[in-house]
Specification:
By secondary structure, the protein is an alpha/beta fold. The chain is 49% helix and 10% strand. Among the domains are: 68-299, Rossmann fold (3-Layer(aba) Sandwich); 401-493, no CATH class. The chain binds iron/sulfur cluster (SF4).
C-alpha cells in the first residue's frame, strides 16, 4: 500500500495519474463516487426549494466579506480577546507551526488530540508535532485511518476515501492487536474504543475552523462524528487554526453557509454536529478549555486577495467539485500531489505552493464546468484554471523545451496568414488522410499518440474550407442548388 503517489508532494501529475489509473482497487473505489456522494450532492440541491437563491446569497456574503477582510478580521480579534482568548497572526506555514508549538510548550502539553483540519495539513503540522515529541492522535475516523497508514488525505471531506473496508481492516488490525473484519460497524467500534481514552488523556486539542463569526468571536465547527466536541471540551487548551478567509461578519450569516456546506459536502440538510465555541470556559461552566487560542493563517491568501484569482477564497471546503469532476473520479486525490485535490486543488495548490512547481495542475481539467455547477458558492473554477494556464506562459521554467517550441510555432502561425495557410494545408494532407471510415482518428502518430490512448481525435477535413470555397462553393451560399441542405455539403461535416 506504500505506493509513491500516496506519499509525495510536488510530483508530476501525469505520472501519478497514470499510476492511479493502473491501480485496480482505487479504480473500484472511485468508480462508486459518482453514485454515492455525487448523487447525494445533486439530490440535495434538487430537494432544496431555495437552492439558487441561497447559493447566490452565500456567494454575495463571501464577496462582500473579502472586500473588507481586514476590518472583519480585526473585529474577530477584538471579539476573541474580549472573551478571554488569544489570537496569533501567522504569515505562513512555518510561522503557524511555530506559534502552535510555542503554545504547546508553554502549557507543557505532551499529548494532543486533533479533529479534522485541512489547514493543519496545509501547514504540515503533524510531522512538526511528531518531531517535537508530542503524541498526536487524529480523532476523525478517516483521518485516524490515514494517520495509522501514513497516507495523505485523498478527499477534502473523506480523507480515507481511497481505501476500501478490507484495506481499512488491514491498516487497523496491527493497532488493535487482533485481526479485524471488514465489517464497518466493527471497525467503527474499534476506533471508538481506541480513541475515547485519548480525549481524556490529552493536554490540548487542535481543530480547524469552518467559520469564524467576527461580531461574536464564535468559532463554528461542523462534523458528523462528534469528535470535534470531545477535542474542544475535554483538554485544558484548545487551539483552533483558520485560513483568514474563513471569517464571516455576522451570526445571521451562518445559517446560509451551514445549509450550503452540508449539501455540498455529504448531501445532508445539516451536518450531524454543529458546534459554536465562544471563548474559553467561563465561570460556572462545567466543561470547555481553560485556554483558547485562535491561529489566523495568511500563507499567500492576502496576495491572492488582490489578484484575478480572488474568487478561490470563496471556497468553503465542501468537496462537491471533487465528486463532480471527471478527472478526480478517474485519478483520485493523491495524484494532485498537494494538500487540496480535485478542481479546487488544481487552483489552490499552484497559488499557495508555486505555479512552476505545480505546472501540470492547471491542465488537469477538461474544463467541462461540472465543478462550477456543483460548487455551493458557484466558484468559476474553469475560468481560474484558464488564467493559471495563461500565467504559465510567463513562467518559462514551467514549460518543457518541446512544449515551449510547439507553442512558439503555434503562436507564430496564428499571427501569420501565410504560415496558417501552410499549416492547414499540411494538416489536411497528413492527418486529414489518416482517417478511415469515420471522421475520428483513433491513433495519432509519435508524440501525439498520448491523446488517442484514451480518446479519439477529430480528423481535419480532407479539403480545407478555403479550397472548397474558392472551388465555387460560393454558389451554395447564393442559393444555387436550391433544396440542398447544408448537411449534404461535405465541408460542413468538419470543423
Ligand atoms: S470550490 Fe466549491 S465545491 Fe469545491 S470545495 Fe470549494 S466550495 Fe466546495
Amino acid at each position: 500500500m506504500k505506493l509513491a503517489y500516496l506519499q509525495h508532494e510536488h510530483h508530476e501529475f501525469r505520472d501519478a495519474a497514470a499510476d492511479a489509473m493502473a491501480d485496480a482497487q482505487l479504480q473500484g473505489v472511485l468508480g462508486r463516487l459518482a453514485d454515492t456522494l455525487g448523487v447525494r450532492n445533486r439530490e440535495a440541491w434538487e430537494d432544496f426549494a431555495d437552492s439558487a437563491a441561497t447559493r447566490e446569497r452565500a456567494r454575495r456574503i463571501k464577496d462582500a466579506t473579502l472586500a473588507d477582510l481586514d476590518k472583519h478580521l480585526e473585529t474577530l480579534e477584538r471579539s476573541v480577546t474580549r472573551l478571554g482568548g488569544r489570537v496569533h497572526w501567522c504569515d505562513d506555514g512555518a510561522a503557524a507551526r511555530e506559534a502552535i508549538l510555542g503554545i504547546l510548550r508553554q502549557c507543557g502539553a505532551k499529548k494532543i488530540v486533533k479533529s479534522k483540519s485541512m489547514t493543519t495539513e496545509e501547514i504540515h503540522l503533524n510531522p512538526a508535532l511528531v518531531e517535537a515529541g508530542i503524541e498526536t492522535v487524529e480523532t476523525d475516523f478517516g483521518e485516524y485511518i490515514i494517520q495509522v497508514a501514513g497516507h495523505r488525505p485523498s478527499h477534502i471531506v473523506g480523507p480515507a476515501l481511497h481505501l476500501n473496508a478490507k484495506q481499512v481492516a488491514e491498516v487497523l488490525s496491527p493497532v488493535a492487536g487482533e485481526t479485524l473484519s471488514s465489517d464497518r460497524e466493527e471497525l467503527t467500534r474499534f476506533a471508538r474504543r481506541a480513541l475515547r481514552s485519548k480525549f481524556a488523556e490529552a493536554d490540548a486539542g487542535i481543530t480547524g475552523v469552518n467559520f469564524a463569526v467576527a461580531e461574536t468571536g464564535t468559532i463554528v465547527l461542523v462534523s458528523n462524528e462528534g469528535n470535534a466536541r470531545f477535542t474542544t471540551a475535554l483538554p485544558r487548551v484548545h487551539i483552533a487554526i483558520m485560513g483568514m478567509e474563513k471569517v464571516i461578519p455576522r451570526l445571521a450569516d451562518l445559517p446560509v453557509f451551514l445549509k450550503v456546506l452540508a449539501r455540498g459536502a455529504t448531501g445532508q440538510k445539516l451536518s450531524v454536529y454543529t458546534s459554536l465555541i465562544t471563548g474559553p470556559r467561563r465561570m460556572g461552566e462545567l466543561d470547555g478549555p481553560e485556554e483558547f487560542h485562535l491561529v489566523i493563517l495568511d500563507n499567500g491568501r492576502s496576495r491572492i486577495l488582490g489578484g484575478p484569482l480572488r474568487e478561490s477564497l470563496f471556497c468553503i471546503r465542501c468537496g462537491a467539485c471533487l465528486n463532480a469532476c471527471p478527472i478526480y473520479r478517474n485519478v483520485g486525490g493523491h495524484a494532485y500531489g498537494g494538500t487540496y485535490s480535485g478542481p479546487i486543488g488544481a487552483v489552490l495548490t499552484p497559488l499557495y505552493d508555486g505555479l512552476s512547481q505545480n505546472h501540470h495542475l492547471p491542465h488537469a481539467s477538461s474544463l467541462c464546468g461540472a465543478c462550477q455547477a456543483a460548487c455551493p458558492v458557484k466558484i468559476q473554477i474553469p475560468e481560474m484554471l484558464i488564467r493559471l494556464r495563461e500565467q504559465l506562459h510567463h513562467e518559462p521554467r514551467a514549460l518543457g523545451r518541446v512544449e515551449r517550441w510547439a507553442y512558439g510555432i503555434w503562436a507564430r502561425a496564428m499571427r501569420s496568414p501565410r504560415l496558417y495557410r501552410a499549416g492547414t494545408w499540411l494538416a489536411t494532407r497528413t492527418l486529414g488522410r489518416l482517417k478511415r471510415s469515420t471522421r475520428w482518428l483513433t491513433k495519432l502518430p509519435g508524440g501525439l499518440g498520448g491523446w488517442t490512448r484514451t480518446r479519439d481525435f477529430p480528423a481535419p477535413a480532407e479539403r480545407r474550407f478555403r479550397d472548397w470555397w474558392s472551388a465555387g462553393a460560393g454558389d451554395w451560399g447564393l442559393g444555387a442548388g436550391e433544396g440542398a441542405s447544408p448537411a449534404s455539403k461535405e465541408p460542413f461535416d468538419h470543423a
